[in-house]
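User: I'm new to structure prediction. If I give you an amino acid sequence, what do you actually give back? Let's try with this one:
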Amino acid sequence: MTSDPLKTKHLVELDGAKERLKLFKANLTEDCSFDEAIEGCHGVFHVASPCTFTTKKDPYAEIVEPIVKGTINVLNSCAKTPSVRRVILTSSITAVSFTIRRSSEGVLDETWFSEPEHCKENKLWYQLSKTLAEEAAWKFVKEKGIDMVVINSSAVIGSMFNPSLNLTCVIVLNLMNGLQLYKDLIGCINVKDVADAHIQAFEISSANGRYCLSERELRLSDVANELVKLYPSFITRLPQKWEEDDEFSVPYPVSKEKAKTLGINFIPFEVSLKETVESLKEMGLVSF
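Assistant: Good question. You get back a string of structure tokens that encode the predicted 3D arrangement of the chain. For your 288 residues, that looks like this:
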């Protein structure tokens, strides 16, 4: 439960929320904070994690430690709850792809793991936090005998119904306003596919290990080109010069094979991008 009702207004207004939705007060960094919420549950989905790439002073204290500690706190509550049959952990493609293998090998898949030292050397603190959090989670569930499945999603786009924007939608919004504030390659997946993957990972008994989710891998200039195809009038608003990440200048393909075993069909990027823009329009953040 949040002290700000505006943050949960869109949830309590969902159909059936009055009968089937219960909110609890919890804090990722507080021990035992999730005990009450998880009590009696068969499945636990840990999908919340602060997504930030900026730090004021101490990246470990501000980014890395809260994400790692929060993950273990949730798992601790699961370990104390006999009714829990499976945990679904939302990790990230950033816990998979940030490795020197990415510059020399072909298709990225679930066997890849980001390298903490590589992340530290390049000051990739969010990527480091997701890598260490997933690493700690696998170690914890192995010791405690917890059945866990991990979803390694790329950047999530598509229709929005919450009042705040996620980082990917901010990137798209900035592009539409002529700003490029992010230079790395970006893999994209529709939010509906991400939700479906989580559900199937829990309900399909044979689901196991990790599942990478990415429908398309693009440079931001590729995203801009798709925007122009969908909305030709935006050609005058988009950045005229592009700053690309020299280290990974060519989009790296992400395997879809294991995700397809969950029944994920992968909504095309063009559809997801259009849904994103239309949501931004409905929110009054863009006009055309």
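You can read the tokens as a compact description of the fold. Here is one thing that stands out. The CA atoms of residues 280 and 286 lie 6 Å apart.
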